[in-house]
């Protein structure tokens, strides 16, 4: 199948170049409907049973609060999402074959939720090596349209060395050169270089449907990364126990790629 392989390799190279240049890659409809439709009720459970609130409390004050009794990645469809083969293949195109799962957030955002100011989400590593990639996969389970607001990104801004909050004073304002992603089919994913500045804008109508949003991040191996959840070891141990990588991605849930958690992390 030489023609197929050449075509796929060319596509891979084009996507890799585009991602390196712009800092983002849109993958419409990456998630198949059977997976997407199982994820939605899991997000509902995560929110409605207070698991999300307990997870946030445990991150904010790990002395006073235990981790939730169920972690996001223990919800079966969330576990599948983390290691969805087309997703991991896309990540491998961008980062090479060795990367580690960093963290997962799942949320059902209310209609009319306020925007989130310009920021980036890149976490430091112990080699202070900015060439090591961290990538966020933003999964929009219901897609994006005028009823759930939009994502705006600032292409190329991942190459600037800037604090996460360097642009927060701009709020969600329109910036020169920005790209607005406001229309995606259900089950779409946007891959962001985590150092790319981005903002969440509210729906123009101020009301509409809840936004089902799951984001998962992954880091290139080669340094130890700072964890953001105090119960990160438990999280990785559960992923290994559940064999989420099905033996195919030996670095994906390995503790050795992380520094110890600190309260500022
Ligand atoms: Fe973000």
Give the tags.
five-stranded antiparallel sheet; binds fe (ii) ion; alpha+beta; Jelly Rolls; four-stranded antiparallel sheet; 265 residues; globular; 28% helix
Kindly summarize this structure in a few lines.
The protein is of the alpha+beta class and 265 residues long. The protein has one domain (17-257): q2cbj1_9rhob like domain (Jelly Rolls, Sandwich), CATH 2.60.120.620. Helix content is 28%, strand content 20%.
How would the blueprint of this fold be written?
Layout: H1 2-22, E1 24-27, H2 33-48, H3 51-60, H4 76-82, H5 85-95, E2 99-109, E3 116-119, E4 134-140, E5 150-153, E6 179-181, E7 188-193, E8 198-201, E9 211-220, H6 232-241
Helix pairs in contact: 2-4
The protein binds fe (ii) ion.
Could you describe the 3D structure shown?
The protein is α+β, with helices and mostly antiparallel strands and 265 residues long. It has one domain: Jelly Rolls. Helix content is 28%, strand content 20%. The protein contains six helices and nine strands. Helix 2 crosses helix 4. It is globular and about 45 Å long. The N and C termini lie far apart (48 Å). The structure holds fe (ii) ion. Fe (ii) ion binds at residues 119, 121, 198.
